[in-house]
Amino acid sequence: MANLGLSSGTKSVKSVNVSFRLPYYTQWGQSLLVCGSEPILGSWDVKKGLLLSPVHEGEELIWYGSVATPTEFSCEYNYYVVDDEKNVLRWEMGKRRKLLLSKEINGGETVQLHDLWQTGGDAIPFRSAFKNVIFRRSWNLSIERPLGVQNKLDKEDTVLVHFKICCPNVEEETSLYVIGSNAKLGRWNVQEGLKLSYAGDSIWQADAVMPRSEFPIKYRYCKYNKAGNFSLETGQNRDLSFDSSKIPPRYIFLSDGMLREMPWRGAGVAIPMFSVRSENDLGVGEFLDLKLLVDWAVESGFHLVQLLPINDTSVHGMWWDSYPYSSLSVFALHPLYLRVQALSENLKEDVKREIQQAGKKLDGKDVDYEATMAAKLSIAKKVFAQEKDLILNSSSFQQYFLENEEWLKPYAAFCFLRDFFETSDHSQWGRFSHYSKEKLEKLVSKDSLHYDIICFHYYVQFHLHLQLSEAAEYARKNGVILKGDLPIGVDRNSVDTWVYPNLFRMNTSTGAPPDYFDKNGQNWGFPTYNWEEMSKDNYAWWRARLTQMAKYFTAYRIDHILGFFRIWELPEHAMTGLIGKFRPSIPLSQEELEKEGIWDFDRLSRPYIIQEFLQEKFGASWTFIAANFMNEYQKGRYEFKDDCNTEKKIAYKLKTFAEKSMLLESEDKIRHGLFDVLKNIVLIRDPEDSRKFYPRFNLEDTSSFQDLDDHSKNVLKKLYYDYYFHRQENLWRKNAMKTLPVLLNSSDMLACGEDLGLIPACVHPVMQELGLIGLRIQRMPSEPDLEFGIPSQYSYMTVCAPSCHDCSTLRAWWEEDEERRCRFFKNVVGSNELPPSQCTPEIANFVIRLHVEAPSMWAIFPLQDLLALKEEYTTRPATEETINDPTNPKHYWRYRVHVTLESLMKDKELKTSISSLIRGSGRSYPGKADEGGNKGTSSSVLGKQQVNSSGETSMISIQSNGVPGKGTSVL
């Protein structure tokens, strides 16, 4: 027998038994598993992780498992929910857990870890919006004791309990304590409780050696400051007990999650960058204007400034580029927002005169996109010619170039080729149509004839970076979150589709959800994402995009978050959006339809065109339409000719007829009519698999459906409802759980999701699980039985707002519809009187107060709605304050605020009105100290300890406005 060292005088090494314990409810077929960085926990291979076993303890389901580890063992680990084959169904959010076994713990001992499942919400305080802005400390919080146990057990009948709590918001000269039911925890007396030490990363810890006889114990955490005030965590007492049927562990590590405090709530202002007006701008808001906007925000009581996308959109070279959601590059900043005065300290006199003249010329009511772009680029080129060598050879530029060249070189080359070929359609660029690194390096090389042009684009991006960075740092230092916007799409003629064509499905286009198209018949024309291809490098393009955003922003809005679950995808030849399908989705199979008695697939999937339909649609013109666009394949039955059997072909042929003056009616009217005929189908045949079908959105509205027999109608209605509302839910959840966590883990920005519209049932549970903050607009309630949302019933994990950039302002909405206004006045305001026809400051005050008092984490208001608080600012017609008209695909995004930031800074009355609303709501207020000397960053309940004649400890709560509230017993 081999000598294993067991009988030769060598002592065997005793291991430490580490026991995991986690309360968690699972569904049938699900299990809990722990996986970590060391081999005994799978080395982050979940399939090799430790499966836990469930035990019912009272009303809780507790999962247990144990491993033997060496002494002084350390590792990282997390919990996962898996199926029977150990496939991951969900995982914990937040930071990886750390296990540290100190040398004080001898071999043979048992260490029991009492953990709590970490949700996405638990990770929110560690996002940069809170960590680096809201809870940013002007004082140093030094580590008092490294993480881990440092005490040793000597007596046999004692247990060492290691308390650990996460608390990211601790004011200066404030301590954390554990108080509880036994002597070590002060018997609920704060001064005699167990004081915790800071261990870094917002973790506080303490050890207590307790006799076994004192278990079970009840306890809570609390804050205690120098002035003698303390805030006790909310909720029920925490419990710690043994399983009486087992030998109790000698060491218990408590990971108690987050300190339970009153939820932090803040307020913000939303305004597009282009809409800002200042005394120094050239016809449009500029990045450096944000510093003044931050000042105004702070003095008005706001912790957040929200912008629309700020990436370069210079695709068409005209005002169409004002649309901020169709980016030329997801990395490059828009030259529109450059402050040319700041390009140099030594501007020539002729340049100064040009800037002065441009300022006067461009100072209009609205943004003149084309004139502003032309003026800024003209001035920037002159300054560049003067200072290019100085800037390009500077160490700061060299560093910037080094950090950004991966996207900066292709962007500059694209801009050069766009201007050279006079189109952004890279399919028209000859040998440059297909991107390659070799071609790129030749284009941007110092030896090329156009190197100066390439460098000009570097130069502009460098200065945009400097100016936005300056504004972003200013916002951080002043306690204001700068919130950006992540568009769901890119322009099909963009740098990104040129450089990464495999990441996009260019033969299709995507738009808004189908309910939007049903109302407006528009198609945005974005390429859809090839998620399968993106997954091959773990979504590197998305990760780089979020990393770039995080250089400037501490929070962001995910535009149309439903696109990460599923996207509404259209054929490349579509110009409107109803003949589409969800990607991904499970189609209807031919076998499935045949089992239900559906056989005539050509009848259902081809345009149903009969003579009566044409006569009804086109009147006297129907014969012209039939002769030029149709073939009569059967008596009274028609089909489209091959040269006009798609929307794009119809539009092209109509334009040809119009140019020859051959149309009897308007081109628009005939086009809409022909499009309706083309869409008169019930099923859409999959172009990649002819045996798969997708039900046309709103199929019951078509005459093709109406002319079917009752059996077919009933079957198709059932399958339609199943396709749109049931069968996809699990697929869409899985899709989102592949992509959204990658976004969230790519940066430490706070993430909010625009979740308006037709919301699948899987969306909100996924957002809650991932800690994504949703959006609530009062006039667009998610509840189908409500006309107006009820802000007081919103959940905490939301942003609430009375309006947004995609709808009319509060004033315009109020004036649009008299009957709706009366219903709002009766049902929301609670008055039977006739409401005023105009949105008076009193009405604006009421609506804003509803929102600041809501439980939502954030109440964010468009600047236009805030200006409605003062009559002086309501002289401009309300309709002119709308940023976007979603019914118009070529809307000109040009709204400018009609008052400068400098004037708003001087308006103490408006700032007082806004700050009073925020203060009165209990929302956090930036930069002001409360009576206890704490800055206004916390809504915690403060209290004074009281001891009654029986020795019981109680607390008088002090509400956020300083008014004594109902007494709360600590016991």
Write the layout of secondary structure elements.
Layout: E1 16-23, E2 31-36, E3 50-51, E4 53-57, E5 60-69, E6 74-82, E7 88-91, E8 97-100, E9 110-114, H1 120-123, H2 128-134, E10 158-166, E11 174-180, E12 194-195, E13 197-198, E14 203-211, E15 217-225, E16 229-232, E17 238-240, E18 251-258, E19 266-270, H3 289-300, E20 304-306, H4 349-362, H5 369-392, H6 395-421, H7 437-443, H8 451-477, E21 481-486, H9 495-499, E22 504-510, H10 514-520, E23 526-529, H11 531-534, H12 540-549, E24 555-558, E25 567-571, E26 581-583, E27 588-589, H13 590-595, H14 601-605, E28 609-610, H15 611-618, H16 622-629, E29 630-634, E30 637-640, H17 647-659, H18 667-678, E31 683-686, E32 689-695, H19 703-706, H20 710-725, H21 729-746, E33 750-753, H22 763-770, E34 774-777, E35 798-801, H23 810-816, H24 818-829, H25 841-852, E36 858-862, H26 863-867, H27 901-906, H28 908-921, E37 942-947, E38 953-958, E39 968-969
Parallel strand pairs: 1-9, 9-18, 10-18, 19-20, 19-36, 20-21, 21-24, 24-33, 34-35, 35-36
Antiparallel strand pairs: 1-5, 2-3, 2-6, 4-5, 6-7, 6-8, 10-14, 11-12, 11-15, 13-14, 15-16, 15-17, 16-37, 22-23, 22-25, 25-26, 27-32, 28-30, 29-30, 31-32, 37-38, 38-39
Domain CBM20: 10-119, 153-266
Biased composition (Polar residues): 936-962
Family: Belongs to the disproportionating enzyme family.
What does the model show?
By secondary structure, the protein is of the alpha+beta class. 31% of the residues lie in helices and 20% in strands. Strands 4-5-1-9-18-10-14-13 form an eight-stranded mixed β-sheet, with no helix packed on it. Strand 15 and strand 16 (229-232) form a beta hairpin. The chain starts with 15 loop residues before the first strand and ends with a strand.
